[in-house]
Specification:
By secondary structure, the protein is mainly alpha-helical. The protein has 13 helices and no strands.
Length: 292
């Protein structure tokens, strides 16, 4: 009976295992192999070059820019999206009724195509858009939103925050709904009301939601492609040049598949280490408030 149950379990799991084997494991092993070659994605022949691709990537200006730009995006996007999604969750949580309707409404931007959103933003911020015409005519301001190394990353970070704030708000809303009322009643008896209640009760009790949202937001920063590709192409002066743009440019624009694969592996390692650091920090914060 146990053998029959075991084989039955493997049988039901086999479609997913086969899918993973074909579309994840084989490509991963192939990518690791390609990272040590000079394949140009077209020629049938290529040579093994050892660690040459990795050494070249470590001293590359564009790779270094992608590394720094990712953390620059992170410093802008993560605080904005966490604060915005938490505020939105608190507003929805305080509604007497129709919470689900409002939650779904704010979730809709997450479903919008990144290309479509970028095209809309590009039109809104173009030189002859009503917004810029108003600024030039009435305020005397001629703002090059996507041509400034300071404003361009901020525009992309704000656009992505608008897209994801509704999704992350659902996670915070779920956390708020799960806090027992007895905890608030006990805190009120101890004098924790208003801001003190929010800071010393609500925030610590939302640790699982903070943990999930932060990890998701940090991981997202290492996969940015659509928005900078459509809006800025990585410019100006590498100010919006991300890992995915660098991988795309090397592998598909310059046909350096081996080198592009090496950059992708470096990106994976940097992503893993960064998320691990944030995990440890969040776990320490949670441990101080009783979350083991």
């Amino acid at each position: 009976m146990n053998k029959k149950t075991t084989w039955l379990g493997w049988l039901f799991a086999s479609p997913y295992l086969i899918y993973t084997l074909i579309f994840f494991l084989f490509p991963l092993l192939w990518a690791v192999y390609l990272a040590f070659t000079n394949w140009n994605i077209i020629a049938p022949d290529y040579e093994m070059v050892g660690f040459q691709n990795f050494l070249e990537a470590f001293f590359s200006k564009s790779v270094r820019a992608a590394f720094l730009v990712t953390y620059k995006f992170m410093l802008m996007f993560v605080p904005i999206v966490i604060a915005g999604s938490l505020l939105l969750a608190l507003i929805i949580h305080s509604l007497p009724r129709l919470k689900g309707l409002f939650a779904v409404g704010y979730f809709l931007p997450y479903l919008a195509s990144g290309v479509a959103s970028s095209i809309v933003v590009n039109g809104v911020l173009s030189y002859n858009s009503p917004l810029n015409v108003f600024f030039r005519k009435h305020l005397g301001l001629d703002i090059d939103w996507l041509g400034s190394p300071i404003l361009a990353p901020l525009v992309i970070a704000l656009m992505m925050a608008w897209k994801f704030v509704g999704y992350y708000a659902l996670l915070f809303l779920s956390g708020l709904e799960s806090i027992p009322k007895e905890i608030y009643e006990a805190a009120e008896m101890d004098g924790a009301v208003g801001w003190k209640r929010f800071w010393y009760v609500t925030i610590p009790m939302l640790h699982p939601a903070f943990y999930t949202v932060t990890i998701l937001a940090v991981g997202l920063m290492f996969g940015i492609f659509t928005e900078p590709y459509v809006l800025t192409g990585g410019g100006p002066d590498y100010s919006t040049h991300t890992w995915q743009l660098e991988i795309y440019n090397q592998a598909f624009e310059r046909l350096n598949a081996g080198y592009g694969t090496a950059i992708a592996i470096i990106n994976s390692v940097v992503t893993f280490v960064s998320i691990l650091v944030f995990r440890k920090l969040l776990e320490k914060w949670g441990a101080r408030h009783g979350w083991e």
